[in-house]
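Why do we bother with holo predictions? Because pocket geometry can differ from the apo form. Keep that in mind while you read this record for N-acetyl-beta-D-glucopyranosylamine.
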Amino acid sequence: MSLISSSLLTFYPHHTELSSSASLLLVSSFSGSSKPCSSFPLLRNSSRQIKPLRASSETITETSSISVDNNESDDSTAFQIKARNRIGLLQVITRVFKVLGLKIEKAIVEFEGEFFVKKFFVTDSHGRKIVDHGSLDKIKNALMEAIDDGDGVFSVSSSVPSRGIVVRRAGLLMESGERRAKAERMFGLMDGFLKNDPLSLQKDILHHVEYTVARSRFSFDDFEAYQALSHSVRDRLIERWHDTHQYFKRKDPKRLYFLSLEYLMGRSLSNSVINLGIKDQCADALRQLGFEFEVLAEQEGDAALGNGGLARLSACQMDSLATLDFPAWGYGLRYQYGLFRQVILDGLQHEQPDYWLNFGNPWEIERVHVSYAVKFYGTVEEETLNGEKYKVWVPGEMVEAVAYDNPIPGYGTRNTINLRLWAAKPSGQYDMGKELRLKQQYFFVSASLQDIIRRFKETHNDFDNFPDKVALQLNDTLPSLAIAEVMRVLVDEERLSWEKAWGIVCKLFSFTTHTAQPEGLEKIPVDLIGSLLPRHLQVIYDINFMFMEELKRLIGLDYSRLSRMSIVEEGAVKHIRMANLSIVCCHTVNGVSRVHLEILKTRVFKDFYDLWPQKFQYKTNGVTQRRWIVVSNPSLCALISKWLGTEAWIRDVDLLMGLREYATDVNLHQEWKMVRRVNKMRLAEYIEAMSGVKISVDAMFDVQIKRIHEYKRQLLNILGIIHRYDCIKNMEKSDRRNVVPRVCIVGGKAAPGYDIAKKIIKLCHAVAEKINNDPDIGDLLKLVFIPDYNVSVAELVIPGSDLSQHISTAGHEASGTGSMKFLMNGCLLLATADGSTVEIIEEIGEDNMFIFGAKVHEVSALREKGHADKVPLQFARVVRMVREGYFGFKDYFQSLCDTVEGDGDFFLLGDDFTSYLEAQAAADRAFVDQERWTRMSILCTAGSGRFSSDRTMEEYAEKTWDIEPCKCPI
Ligand code: NBG
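The structure, written out:
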């Protein structure tokens, strides 16, 4: 794996053990069951329009009930509990049974809207039914106390479950009489949507201040106001999310399940209110209460459940899937700690844990009743049933996965989809955070597939239909154990023949790779899989055997090629090649840009491409304009809408092209420059507050923010800055007047074990120290490192940038998505023709960008030639300045210099240095002519439509997943 993706996420130190409830059969009907109570919320929705609004709350308790039945099961007592749902209720109930020394043999939990109907089959400590009336009463009383959350009255029915309102089946609602009247009363109590006028919002906010945050409405601070506002927004998200899922359930379209181990969601508040269309109302409501929306939005921490490009792309794609009304679900992991926080001390990166959940997370809903046991270790045994032999995995350990749901609202639609993240249920036996990446992967895969298969089986009983109803997308190879898991479940548990299961699996999965380097491909030691997942290893071996036999038939006994293509890599330590497994089993393999696909076809997966060319496609990445313009650059958003005369571009981004017509309009220029200047001022204030460095907004803000990696060549940038500094120092004073002032801004995290990347950060600080304190230089050049780069920092920096750098060695960046965000915001690009930049050039035109450096097809020849003899003098000079200690830390920087000198210069910094400086000089010249610069800036935004994740998702839907929009009616 590359250093970036292998930087083991410090996430996830969950304490878990196989608790007694791990063996429970927990059934949720929230998301699409045809099980009993399906008509419950539908009725509520349809009656919403006509019924009067909310009644008082005291009758609500009439809906709770406990009943006991000893006839339902031969060997256990059934307790049926119906109550209003609340977080942790299920845990409370199971705890009561446990404390009373009772054992839950089975539990069926159904959930609709705000109500639970739970049936627990319980035995006493001797494993027998509970028949004694006194004991039964005691249990009921204890349950009653635990469940009663303060509403006051609580009705307990006698031993037949007909008392209380026990609505479990659609048919029951059709019955006349008392039961129906009560059901209708419940619907009547909540038959309208929450209102979004400022007064209603204010009431809701204060309600949450008092009852959720538990503060007095006369005394709460910004953070508490943020919490109360978020809960008010969440209530509105939940309404739409219920309706969306009910609608999906009713329509039963083919669904996409997006399986990704990483999501960089950033903050949710602003994005949610914008997508819900209630930002202005919220701002008005808050103003009257004495709060500023922007200030409250700043209270939120980032949800950083991932590393870099892949993870942020997943978040953008979720936004597009919701907005485009696709019936999609995201699955991921709810890591206990997010990506480390980067703290810089003396220019050195230190990693601190990101306790992102410490202050609560209002954007998630804990689904205690959606939980699955995940198995690990153990042995595989053989069983014979009806003369047929079956493999049975006898696990050595089980961990319980609990769902946390995160509603993802679409923009301009009612559709709100779900991102379901799994957490290990805590209990003190061991720490999932210290567990292997493989264990995390399987935990994720197993829980997600149990959930997906359970949902499918609620409405279908034939797996032949599975690929017609389900598309499984693997976001890189990290979730690719899902392939072996589906085979295992279909063959061992569902008892399908291997051939039939294989036929299904081949139609289910698609896979996207996010790396351009063969070294970046994931491999897992066979011994490790064999120990943690013994049955999966057998399945993988069987798949490989089958594949190898077929391959021999197709290509003959070309052993070298056979061994390259094998899923199993032989050697001192045997490995499973997860990419090979994915290619063999997926119907489609996607690259993330056109150049990336070329690299896959000709280098990384050449053998496979030659065999199955039809499997290989590309879908150029995109980013969501909702987050990257509407949320992060509201003034540009307003300006665009004003000039286009519509806000429709927020959903239909190609409309941005309409700006081309005004690219030379002096009035637009005026307004465009004003917006950009205000954004630069905002960024300058942030930089001063964070680093103490004062910067001039007249200078060109030149930005490189992304993960620190040698191939991304932050070092090239810093060496270029040293060169600029050196030139200014050696210039006649009178000539300095002609220098275009620059503020160079660098930000990004280095993987904790990536030494060279950390040295690059240190060098950036050392150079900044020298330049920023040199009185000769003044405002002509400043260098600032922005620490702890994350989504929120990007939202601030990108709108305030004039120039941004995307300067990877050609052939190394699979796509790159940062460039697209800058482009949308009218920031010019200084870039190599790598990844998606090649397609950006086609849209924007090379004249409106600063392109330099070797092209993809030139790189290998340059490497072969070697470079020792032809390094440009300017390059040798700046490297020497570092080597000789001009910026201090002489010894520390030697190994860094070695990476770019002599034959060490794998990433071709020396080769590209001259053209890099030329591109920088061209940028200076363009900046001096502000009219030209502004025209280029407008054309960048105008041409950015193709790089929206809306387009990417539409392409995937049509060409890979075969899914259609399923729009929930308003
Ligand atoms: C990154 C690539 C980028 C690409 C994103 C999204 C990972 C592992 N890979 O070039 O380096 O833009 O994925 O596809 O984050």
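The two ends are 46 Å apart (CA to CA).
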